[in-house]
């Protein structure tokens, strides 16, 4: 009967140099500090007088790094500082700010304020605040005016009432006076070239006099066809008294 031959163990052959290299521990830590080495005696003496430094140094030793020295910190390049603080950058910033202000002024609408009382009607046409040299109706240009006049800010373009067109006393509060006043103001706006700078118009009503209805009729009629398409909003700014002082007694005739 044949005997069973056991399997022969496969022997691994490793040379002595490779075995020594595999058996030796591999250092995986690397120092992060670039400071020059200092003696342990100096650091221990300094830590005796500064407890915070002693605590920080022990923490750094556990983490394997030390804080960078002053020699490693580099100042910002002079070219970057010159680019930031130079006159060209300041001029560019001013130009950008002016363009933003100009864009914001163009987006703001013109306003026609209507104050309609029982005695008179006042119309005020205003624009977003801008220098007088950029306002055509101001009569101030960049060539024939002083620097002080050019820096003036203009917002009110027209301000008229029924008395400015010839109505007197009780006639100033009539419907006809308010109608003629509104037609005259719209004609002045068109003749003085104020429509060129106006993209949007807001009508702000105040009061419940006869002029309120008259202004509405003019804007919807043939006199208002030049500005009717540019009206973006109609607002009511009438002041309502809540409480306050006692009103005058009502007038009774007869």
UniProtKB/TrEMBL annotation:
Biased segments, Polar residues type: 132-145
Instruction: Cite a single Pfam family from the UniProt record.
Output: Ribosomal_S11
Q: Name one GO biological process term.
A: translation
**What does this chain do?**
Component of the mitochondrial ribosome (mitoribosome), a dedicated translation machinery responsible for the synthesis of mitochondrial genome-encoded proteins, including at least some of the essential transmembrane subunits of the mitochondrial respiratory chain. The mitoribosomes are attached to the mitochondrial inner membrane and translation products are cotranslationally integrated into the membrane.
Molecular-function annotations in GO: structural constituent of ribosome
Region (Disordered), start-end ranges:
51-80, 122-145
Protein name as catalogued: Small ribosomal subunit protein uS11m
InterPro entries under this entry? Ribosomal_uS11 (IPR001971), Ribosomal_uS11_sf (IPR036967)
Supply the source organism for this entry: Cryoendolithus antarcticus
Q: Where, per UniProt, does this protein localize?
A: Mitochondrion
Family membership: Belongs to the universal ribosomal protein uS11 family.
